[in-house]
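User: I'm curious whether this sequence folds into something compact or stays loose and floppy. Could you predict its structure so I can see for myself?
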Amino acid sequence: MLILIGGLSWPSQAQSGGSIKLRADVQEADANTGIITARGNVKIDYPEEAIYATSAQAQYYSRERRIILTGNVFVQQEANTLQAEVVTYLIDEGRFVATPNDNEQVESIYVLPEPVEEPTAAPQPEPVTTLPALPEELPNFAIPTDE
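Assistant: Here's the prediction. I'll summarize afterward.
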């Protein structure tokens, strides 16, 4: 089973630049192939994309700009998580490809954002009833007096 993951909170295109911090018990770099291999307690921090990952081994293919994590892989981006046996991260696409062990599954947890409520419209004032215009001259009414 092969699972392709992308588009949720992981961006469809990774930002250029930044740095990926790779820590492990042992690291080897091959200048001829451009491949860096890390083994044992691998930890990856990619702050520009808010990605943190752990695995048993990682290989960074600098020319293809991809990272292959193997062995009990755990990836977290913000509150979203991904667990699998093998995860390939395509840096320029911001996309993960995850595969499980035989007879197992990939597990992902996505935290959905709260729905955005549309602002309610302000109450409309009651329509103003216009009064008829007064005549320019008022009639002269005789007011009775006691005289």
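Summary: Strands lie at 3-5, 21-23, 26-30, 35-46, 51-61, 66-77, 80-90, 95-99, 107-109. The two ends are 112 Å apart (CA to CA).
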